[in-house]
Amino acid sequence: MPKISKNAGEDQAILNAKKQVAIHALNVGINGKLPTNSYFKEQHNIVAGTMQRALNLLSESDALSTRSKGHLGRIVTDIDVGLCWNIAKLKPIQLLMPSSGSIEIDCLIKHVTTKLSQLNIPYFIHNQPGALERIRQVEAGNSDITLVSKGACEHPTLTAPTGSVKILEPNTYYCLKRLVIVSKIDTNAKDWKTVGIDRQSTDHTDFTLCEFPSGHAHQYIETDFRQVPARVLRGEIDAGIWHITGSPVPLYFAGLQATEVTQVTTRSKHQAISAAAFITNPKRPELSSLLNELRSEEVALAQSRAFESEDPYNKAF
C-alpha cells in the first residue's frame, strides 16, 4: 500500500497559495502591489506561514520576485509571466484577430502568437472582420485579446475599453507608404470622380474623407476596402484608399496604379490612428501582464524586414 505523506495537506495548501499569489501577481504586474496577508487569509484561507513559504518557492523557481512593504503588502519586482500562468493553471487565451493579408497585420499576429508559444501559454485564434465588432466581442468577454488600430480603439462611438490596452508605435498597424490610392494607370486626381468608401471601417472612412473631402465634387460609392482594386478594375469606381495586401496579380499587371496619399490631413490622421492596439477582456485582469511582454520595437523590426524581403512582383509601386 502506498504511503500517504503526513505533509500532503500542507503541500496542497502551499500549491493553492502559490496559485493565488501567481494570479494576483499577473493581475497587478511589475511594480504592482500584492494584497496583504490579511486579504489572503480572509479570501483564500492562506495563513501567513504558508504565504511566506509560497513566496519563497516562487522566488526560488524564478517565477516571481517581490519586495516587502510591511503591513502594506508586497510589491512585485519581477515576474515570469509564463511560469506564473502555468502555476496558476489559467485557461487558454482566445485571440480575436483581423483577417491576415497585409504585412503589418501578419507580423503583429505572429508577434503575439510567438510570445504566447515562448511563454508556454495555450491559445486559440479566430479571425473577425470589423474592428469595432472585435472590440465589442472582447468587451463582452467572448474573446480575450483583440488587435485593432489606435483609431478604432479610441473611436468616439465606443466607450473607453474597460480591459487593459497596449498601444504600440505609429505605423505598426498601417505603414504610411502602404496606405495608397488605387486607380487605373495613366489617370490622375482630376479624373477621380467616384471614390470608394467603406463606412463599416472607421479608419477607411476617416482616410477617405481626408484625402477626398466632401464638397470637392466627389461621389462616394460604398465599397468594402478590401475590394477597392477589383472595383476600380471593373470601372465601378475611379479610385479608392487601399491598404496594400499580398495579391497573386500585382496591380500594374492588371492595369492599375498605386499612388501615395498627398493630403496633409490624411498624413496627420495616419499619424494619429496608425498605431496597433491590443485590447483585453476586462473579466481577465491577468492578461495585462501578457501585454507587457509585447514589444513595439520588435514588431517594427519584423515589419521592416518583411517589407524588404517582399516579392518585387507583389509590390504596389
TrEMBL record:
Pfam families for this protein: YhfZ_C
Highest taxon above the source species: Bacteria
SUPFAM superfamilies: Periplasmic binding protein-like II
The Uncharacterised protein YhfZ C-terminal domain, residue ranges: 84-308
Name of the protein in question: Uncharacterized protein YhfZ C-terminal domain-containing protein
